[in-house]
Design a protein that fits this description.
heterodimer, A: 332 residues, alpha+beta, 9-stranded mixed sheet, two-stranded antiparallel ribbon, 25% strand, globular, B: 75 residues, mainly alpha
């Protein structure tokens, strides 16, 4: 059975931090130069008491309103987040109740980052194909900014908070979800990690070391080995694209919406993959990298701007923490 | 892999630095324009042009452009 995206919405928290505000904290920083490289002018930041669950709820309610969706029609809820409200239960269970989704629905969290939207779509398609569910709410929500050390200039520049919502069903919709290629390389787990506060290291360690790039690696905060992640992406994404095209039996893709990691990485990836500029989406000016929500935000903005329209084949691709990666083709 | 060709490609990653200021014996980290983003450009160039993986640690531990060339050539 085929699976279709029926609607996409997103929500960004109210508070905005501009580059001009950030530069006050980092006087050695050059606003124009950094903007030119990473492509971010401002990012939204969740309020102190605002969680990923709260953002996901707002995105879902926006989706319901925008597409006139009755929550009682939903029979499965998938939430992708690495910022769960509690250690347990799953935030998706809390959201089932808060959103008025029937108690007869399934609900689960998936703990993935930048590849999470693709995995969410893959799971949804699987549930539909198997006849387990027919109307699935996929939510992506992240508040990475809460994990960043105040002195972590690089990541504070790149990341922003946000949530997206997407309804996936078995009847017609705005886009059919095509084939998937997924991949995982856990050998790179320590290249994007928060070591503390999990079961292995339950409290803060205070440990700080210097990494290969000369950046500080703080165990109690989000750590990213930029050059390792960069190399991983350049290695994995181009062959994944080829495999997906072969699996899909097509060579002609009309548009590409990749995870919006940062402008520099996307431009490099575009060149390496040989994709023309006008077919490749890059826009994180007003959002920053919102982790698992960037692809849905990008698709929504493209639909509204008319960049993506009916009849187009759009390749989406996510890659990052895990290390995890995945891609699919959407037929609009 | 040829040294002079590598130096040209290395110098291409800079926007404000005169390519004439970059030679085999240049200590690249001393260049005013050198930054972590230039380092990323070099990593990408090495991946695209030579199909090899240059790590952040290698860029950090090498000193001159020729050191870097030798490190990559040995891969």
């Amino acid at each position: 059975m085929k699976a279709f995206i029926k609607g996409i919405s997103y929500y960004l928290p109210e508070k905005v931090v501009t580059n001009e505000e950030l530069v006050k904290e980092f006087p050695e920083w050059d606003v124009d130069k950094v903007y030119a490289k990473v492509g971010v002018k401002e990012r939204h930041i969740a309020a102190e008491n605002e969680t990923a669950g709260d953002l996901a709820e707002k995105a879902a309610k926006k989706l319901f309103e925008e597409y006139n969706i009755d929550p009682s029609s939903i029979d499965f809820l998938i939430l992708c987040t690495q910022s769960a409200d509690y250690l347990l239960p799953s935030t998706s269970c809390i959201l089932q109740h808060r959103l008025g989704i029937p108690t007869s629905s399934g609900a689960l969290d998936i703990d993935l980052g930048c590849s999470g939207c693709i995995y969410g779509m893959a799971l949804a398609k699987g549930l539909i194909s198997a006849g387990i569910a027919g109307n699935i709410l996929l939510l992506t929500a992240e508040t990475y900014t809460k994990y960043l050390h105040p002195d972590d200039k690089s990541n504070r520049t790149i990341f922003g908070d946000g949530a997206a919502a997407c309804l996936i069903g078995k009847e017609q919709g705005i886009a059919e979800i095509g084939e998937f290629v997924l991949g995982t390389d856990g050998s790179g787990a320590e290249n994007l990690i928060i070591k503390s506060y999990g079961a292995r290291q339950r409290s803060a360690s205070g440990v700080e070391t210097t990494d290969d790039d000369g950046h500080t690696n703080r165990e109690d905060y989000l750590y990213m080995n930029g050059s390792a992640i960069f190399n991983f992406t350049l290695e994995k994404v181009p062959p994944m694209m080829k495999e997906l095209l072969a699996k899909s039996g097509t060579q002609d893709v009309d548009y590409y919406v990749f995870h919006q990691a940062n402008k520099f990485m996307l431009s490099t990836l575009r060149k390496v993959c040989g994709i023309p500029k006008d077919k490749f989406y890059i826009d994180l000016e007003h959002t920053g990298n919102t982790v698992s929500s960037t692809i849905l935000i990008g698709l929504k903005d493209c639909l509204e701007a008319g960049t993506i329209s009916s009849g187009m084949k759009v390749m989406t691709c996510g890659f990052g923490v895990g290390l995890s990666y995945g891609a699919t083709i959407l037929l609009f | 892999m040829e040294l002079n060709e590598f130096i040209t490609k290395f110098a291409d990653q800079f926007e404000d630095t005169d390519p004439a200021d970059i030679t085999a014996s240049t200590t690249y980290k001393d260049l005013d324009e050198w930054s972590s983003l230039i380092a990323f450009s070099v990593i990408a160039m090495v991946k695209v042009e030579y199909g090899k993986t240059l790590t952040g640690a290698e860029i950090r531990h090498c000193s001159t452009v020729e050191d870097l060339f030798n490190t990559i050539a040995a891969k």
